[in-house]
From TrEMBL:
It comes from Ruminiclostridium herbifermentans. Transmembrane segments: none annotated. The keyword Transferase applies. This is GNAT family N-acetyltransferase. It comes from the Bacteria. It holds the Pfam family Acetyltransf_1. The keyword Transit peptide does not apply.
Length: 175
């Protein structure tokens, strides 16, 4: 396993040739009448060409603006990545945004996500953040991961994230 801080030149659609973004979701967290509940849901998430094109543009933008993208490679194939945006936000300018963290389906459960999360936290702290902000998928499995990493419901919600992904759980992790 090799971890690399990716440059804009390294980020292209071919980078994701062996990345398997697939997730079956059967249960999600939802806030109903002010209380968190698990609801049954049935969906399968996969990324196609359009999603990868958007992802490449977003990751390049993150690096160009001064943020970071970490890539985890196994046998020279990308199997995990995370990105942290460079701009502090929130009422006290204490948050940096963990804009993405994904592990290829074939490599989940091997500690790659934990390592990416650790690297992202360290980078955020080195760049002035007191908290990492995460707008995270509400699936039970995703939320279990973030809770295991020490995340809790965000004290301050990012309005843009809530509007873009109203079913996401808004989380924070104190650095």
């Amino acid at each position: 396993m090799e971890i690399i801080k990716l440059t804009t030149e390294m980020i292209n659609k071919d980078l994701f040739a062996h990345f398997m973004r697939h997730q079956k979701v059967s249960k999600c967290w939802r806030k109903i009448d002010g209380k968190w509940c698990i609801i049954d849901i049935s969906l399968s998430e996969d990324w196609g060409e359009a999603e990868y094109n958007i992802l490449v543009a977003c990751l390049k933008n993150t690096v160009t603006k001064g943020g970071v993208v970490f890539g985890v490679f196994v046998n020279d194939m990308l199997k995990g990545f995370s990105s942290v945006e460079p701009f502090l936000f929130g009422q006290n300018k204490e948050y940096l945004d963990l804009s993405s963290i994904h592990v290829s389906e074939d490599m989940r459960g091997k500690g790659i996500g934990k390592e990416l999360f650790r690297l992202s936290k360290d980078w955020a702290k080195q760049n002035g953040a007191k908290k990492l902000y995460i707008s995270a998928h509400s699936s039970v499995e995703t939320q279990d991961f973030y809770r295991a990493m020490g995340c809790v419901e965000a004290l301050e919600y990012n309005k843009e994230h809530v509007e873009n992904e109203p079913c996401d759980c808004q989380l924070e992790c104190v650095l």
